[in-house]
Amino acid sequence: MKENELRVGNIVHNGVVREQEIYDSSYIELAQFYEPVPLTEELLLRFGAVKKGIYLDFHLLSLLKTKTGRFEVYLDEAWELTTIDYVHEWQNLYYAINKTELTLKDKAE
């Protein structure tokens, strides 16, 4: 991964822990040692998505899983904005649009 892809709060794979959060900017300097975490429906639900028909909804943003496993991101289920593959991409896009951090809930919740 590259440093310019990451922000404090992003979830990455550090080779040991699958869902490692970057806690401060000094960890961003270690980007070359991280791997992106593939975005899944389970993770989106843990971020607070609500299943609505074929979409996973986050207020005005909706995600639709493609046959290739990627997620198309729509504004108000009508306007396709982009396609994403990884958790940090979703976190960064969501923050850029909403100015709010996504919080990953524990699996038990």
Blueprint (SSEs and pairs):
Layout: E1 11-13, E2 20-21, H1 25-28, E3 35-36, H2 41-46, E4 50-52, E5 55-58, E6 61-65, E7 71-75, E8 79-84, H3 87-98
Describe it for me?
The structure is a single chain. The termini are far apart. The protein has helices at residues 25-28, 41-46, 87-98; strands spanning 11-13, 20-21, 35-36, 50-52, 55-58, 61-65, 71-75, 79-84. It folds into 2 domains: 1-36, no CATH class; 38-100, no CATH class. The chain is an alpha+beta fold and 109 residues long. β4 (50-52) and β5 (55-58) form a beta hairpin. It is built from 3 helices and 8 strands. The longest helix is centred in the C-terminal third of the chain and has 12 residues, at 87-98. It is globular. The strands form 2 sheets. Strands 4-5-6-7-8 form a 5-stranded antiparallel beta sheet. Strands 2-1-3 form a 3-stranded antiparallel beta sheet.
